[in-house]
Write a structure and sequence with these properties.
By secondary structure, the protein is of the alpha/beta class. 34% of the residues lie in helices and 20% in strands. The protein contains 15 helices and 19 strands. It is elongated and about 80 Å long. The two termini are 38 Å apart. Bound molecules: ligand BES, manganese (II) ion and zinc ion.
């Protein structure tokens, strides 16, 4: 089901006359008052079914009843909340995803009772349910031309979240709806194959943000060359697709106030270049622009919810290909900062792109802080797996704020070290630095140290290595597709909690 086909709305607690009814209970099978009223005489059936299925209301467990006697609904789904004391803010998002995941493919209508045993969910919690439902519904299926009968979905699906105060729930969901637009746009960009989404096409899609009054500037090869971004251009020189830099600006804050800045690695495909990658899983490298996708999605989210902040997003877009014109190991390039780089491995290309765009963003916008996102190293996946992104920062306050926003949104970051001993590892015999540490050990750290050489010490900066979180073969309660859109909710929260008046 595509996301456009989902019609999400809020309504009062009334027993639905058709479709699927989804309700929540705690460990111990207790329901809230509105749910009890809606179930009426069916409560007895529920108790018997629970016993037969050994359903006790454990967190995220479900009980499913087709054509439940006493209800007009075609199906009743009961979702366990576990012990109420263990219920966290983040859980409602997942519950929304689980609720929609329990709907049979054929279901056209569903009503989800936003109630816990203690009473109606708060408007923010009901809004989180709705967000979870929307994120879960997303599928990237535009290239599927065939479908088996049991995979066929209704053209429209109506999901109503039943709440106490409809107006308050709508109000709470409004900004979240904007954020989900951002997440889904990021997912689309990550999921697109690289024959469709190359730098120019990525830039064209970013231009869509103009509809939301984001100013979008696209720098072409000539402009990039004139700026002296030779580190970025070197990565793209082996591709028939031209490189691009996209600058997005949202001015929702005070005129003249320094912006917050987000920088993204946008390698539309990473073959490794002349230091070519092995064939296994190379197709995943269409997602090597997940950092850039997140920045675009975030700018959309901020603009669509009219965030009271000045924000800039800058993404460096290239394709890393082996070719007669491709960059060679041993080549030396001069970055925009003036520092020279010996390329010892053409597969360590993301840091080369970031070096120039970070430098450019800092010089041009003098931001309050910079956060960069990049699918930068396999080493961060070895260290942290797919649950946490690696965070490197020169600023404790920014790092702490990111950590907190991560816990609030479930997009978790784990701080990793920076230190002069690691910095030494990227010194070069021939140039100011080389683009790898020369050893696989601490590979995510030496990559971060490289980027740090292009950041002024006084500029609060954080680097998020999202190689493990940006795309995903794992399925989660709120994402059944591949691209995750990771980081949009995290950074939207960072802005909302700390940088908006
Ligand atoms: N895009 C890759 C990192 C990556 C790997 C992202 C797997 C997502 C999943 C990056 O450009 C890369 O190739 N890094 C190398 C660096 C090495 C050559 C120093 C790596 O991690 O092996
Ligand atoms: Mn690479
Ligand atoms: Zn890469």
């Amino acid at each position: 089901m595509t996301d456009a086909a989902l019609k999400l709305g809020f309504g009062p607690f009334t027993t639905p006359a058709k479709g699927v009814l989804v309700v929540f209970c705690n460990k111990g099978l207790k329901f809230g008052p509105a749910t009890r009223k809606a179930l009426g005489s069916t409560a007895d059936l529920v108790a018997r079914a629970a016993k037969a299925e050994r359903f006790t209301g454990n967190k995220n467990s479900t009980l499913d009843l087709a054509v439940p006697a006493g209800l007009k609904a075609a199906r009743l789904v009961i979702i366990g909340l576990g012990k109420m004391a263990d219920l966290k803010a983040m859980d409602f998002l997942k519950l929304g995803g689980i609720a929609v995941g329990k709907l049979p493919n054929a279901a056209r209508e569903a009503t989800v009772f936003a109630e816990i045993p203690g009473g109606a969910m708060k408007p923010e919690q009901a809004a989180d349910l709705a967000l979870g439902a929307r994120l879960r519904t997303y599928a990237f299926d535009r290239y599927k031309t065939k479908r088996k009968d049991d995979e066929k979905l209704p053209t429209r699906r109506y999901v109503t979240i039943a709440v106490n105060d409809v107006a308050a729930a709508r109000k709470a969901y409004d900004p979240l709806s904007a954020v989900s637009d951002g997440v889904l746009m990021a997912r689309d960009l990550v999921n697109e194959p690289a024959n469709v989404l190359y730098p120019e096409e990525f830039a064209r899609r970013a231009r869509f943000l103009k509809k939301h009054r984001v100013s979008v500037e696209v720098l072409d090869t000539k402009a990039i060359k004139n700026l002296g971004m030779n580190a970025l251009l070197g990565v793209g020189q082996g591709s028939v697709r031209e490189s691009r830099v996209v600058v997005m600006r949202w001015n929702g804050g005070k005129a003249g106030e320094a912006p917050v800045a987000f920088i993204g690695k946008g390698v539309c495909f990473d073959t490794g270049g002349i230091s070519i990658k092995p064939a296994a899983s190379m197709e995943d490298m269409k997602g090597d622009m997940a950092g850039a996708a997140c920045v675009v999605g975030l700018m959309l989210a901020l603009a669509a919810r009219k965030a009271r902040v000045n924000a800039v997003g800058v993404v460096g877009l290239v394709e890393n290909m082996p070719d007669g014109r491709a960059q060679r190991p041993g080549d030396i390039v001069k970055s925009m900062s003036g520092q020279t780089i010996e390329i010892v491995n053409t597969d360590a290309e993301g840091r080369l792109v970031l070096a120039d765009v970070i430098w450019y963003a800092a010089q041009r916008f003098k931001p309050k802080f910079m956060v960069d996102l990049a699918t930068l190293t396999g080493a961060i996946i070895v260290a942290l797996g797919q649950e946490y992104a690696g965070m490197f920062s020169n600023n404790d306050q920014l790092a702490e704020r990111l950590t907190k926003s991560g816990i609030e949104t479930g997009e978790l970051v784990w701080r990793m070290p920076l230190a002069p001993e690691y910095d030494k590892m990227i010194d070069s015999k021939f140039a100011d630095m080389r683009n790898t540490g020369g050893s696989r050990w601490g590979g995510a750290i030496t990559a971060a140290q490289f980027i740090k050489r292009f950041v002024n010490d006084k500029m609060p900066w954080a680097h998020l290595d999202i190689a493990g979180t940006g795309f995903d073969s794992r399925q989660t309660d709120i994402n059944k597709s591949w691209g995750s859109g990771w980081g949009v909710r995290l950074l939207d929260r960072l802005v909302a909690d700390y940088y908006e008046k």
